[in-house]
Amino acid sequence: MSMKPENILEVRDLKVKFPVTGGLLLRKVAEVKAVDGVDLELKRGETLGLVGESGCGKSTIGKAVINILKFSSPDVDITGEVWVRADEGEIDFLKLSRHEMRKHRGFIQMIFQDPYSSLNARLTVGQIIEEPMLYHTDLSKSQRLDRVAWLLEKVGLQAEQSKRYPHEFSGGQRQRIGIARALATNPKIIVADEPVSALDVSIQAQVINLLQELQGEFDLSILFVAHDLSVVEHISSRIAVMYLGNIVELGPGKDIYHNPIHPYSRALLSAVPVPNPKKKKKDRVILTGDVPTPMNKPSGCGFRTRCPIARAECAQAAPPLEAKSEGHFAACPYVTAGEAIS
Amino acid sequence: MAEDTEKTIKPAVSTSIFKKRWKKFKTLKRGYYSFLTIVALYLLSFILPLFIGRDALIVSYNGDLHFPIFKYYSAEFFGQDIQGEANYRLLKKQYQEEGKGNWVLMPLYPYGPNENLLNELEGNPPHPPSLEHWAGTDDRGRDVFARLAYGFNIGLSFSIIVTFFAYFMGVSIGATLGFFGGKVDFFGLRLIEIWSTLPFLYVIIIISSIIQPNFILLVFILMLFGWIGISYYIRGEFYREKARDYVSAGVSMGAKNKTLIFKHILPNSLTPVISYAPFAIVANIFSLVSLDFLGFGLPPPTPSWGQLMQQGLSNIENWWLIATPLLALFLTLLSITFIGEAIREAFDPKVYSRLR
After folding, report:
1. Parallel, antiparallel, or unpaired: how do β-strands A7-22 and A89-92 relate?
2. Which residue of A has its CA nearest to B254?
3. Given pLDDT bands bounded at 50, 70 and 90, which one contains residue B5?
């Protein structure tokens, strides 16, 4: 099955399971289904927001797409396909070995969540930004330094700052350095893993705006992972809402933000604070209970244990994503667009 | 905008983390001065024959200059009436009495560490401290001060070499376990646990009963038992650093394992090595002294503090045989411990400090 022409990235039936080991010989005693069958499409030039509460698997998807999960947890069980339309043609990243993957790394880069741990404190900013070019370009030393200076100015820093060490920068500046490093190889896909959640709100806006400017200039397609809906709504053309390893709703940003369909999305959105004390929120949906552990997922629909409209059938089979309106999908057969949940 | 103001305020010189820590280390006077003292003394101890020794620096004999410190001369050569190598102290007296214009320039403290002084001293050894022999002589009539001074170089060199090799081994093994993790780590740790149960002292005693240990063999044995502690720390550091985002960033930009280890993880994992090394050096000096004391250390007549203490134990009424090596050991270990303490403090990310 080949990729749709408008897509640059297609994730098909991605499942990521982390084994839980125990006992004297480290046998597998259980598994955490961090991602449980996810399909995603990233169109060329768009920003796809991926939201959900912590532990729902959104960061895992990002790391699976960029294929670095096997490094940090060698025992992880990944199935599915991650198709990427690279310059060389369509490639399934998950089928590549780490060695084969290496030559495609320049095409897809990541911006990390924590600007304090994502930069090696022993290297200067120049060395940090230069490093990807060492692996993916054959630029000479002076060309690399020129590009470092150029990138630093692109992300709103000064070229002279390349001689400094990361600890001499603020959080926002460090995140700009992280962005410059991600852009060093001229990638076409950027996986942004909660790039602003560690920053002050005022700095968040600056970094988001920077990302949007760069997206146009560098022709980037961004998979934007976040838990903050207001941030995602601002930057994303489409939003996917995740709950417990599944996508429960997928649609255009404005649609999801103003007319959520899935009961979970509704609860999630009603939790976004309104910055106006005089305006009372009307239909605030308050969920009861906690998120079940992904080690022991409920049968059928993962959300049924907390769902206000759950019924007996929900325990039977996991509901598929179905179109509720044009380009707007939700994984619940019992709701329709615009209908209030009582 | 907050960031704009930050951008305009620039420190004059950009400082790496190491430079920052070195600056902080310099403010910790006790450790810094101990560091300077120990380094100076240690460097001086490599040119010790210039200050302490039996060989003359320069002999002027019949108008020619000779440098016995570099070359062997027989007693006959200088017109001295004894067998074998010249005795330059007696030669100096002889020339002064002759008054022919020949002269001898001796080191400041003209006694060697392995030199038997029974011919020149009255009475039976050990001789008590005197103006000529600042710490007396031992039970074979050898000058204790000279032996202590030469023992300092041997002890500290031994300890630094052992620490270097043991840490090299420990860091390599710990890094391998920590970086590759999984089964490598699991079985590697079990092997380390088995190895660490081997009793170090018994192994030494068994080996020494078969062959006389020399410097290299002792370094090797102490290295084999000295790497375990640091390998645990490095393994832990590698586990921690490996999970941090800058390593993931390295993987996602396509760095090879070699680059990840040597460029990214290792430089960030060396804090325990640097902060434990002074204490390891202390421990290894102490190990050598203990082994010498028990008679399983370096072969005689190597000048050694432990061997002096052992003499002190068998000649308990000659206090200088116990007091001087113990004092030397105490001062050395104390200063190195001060250094270690200051290094630990300098590497402590907390701003406040109790140590001054």
Report:
1. unpaired
2. A102
3. very low
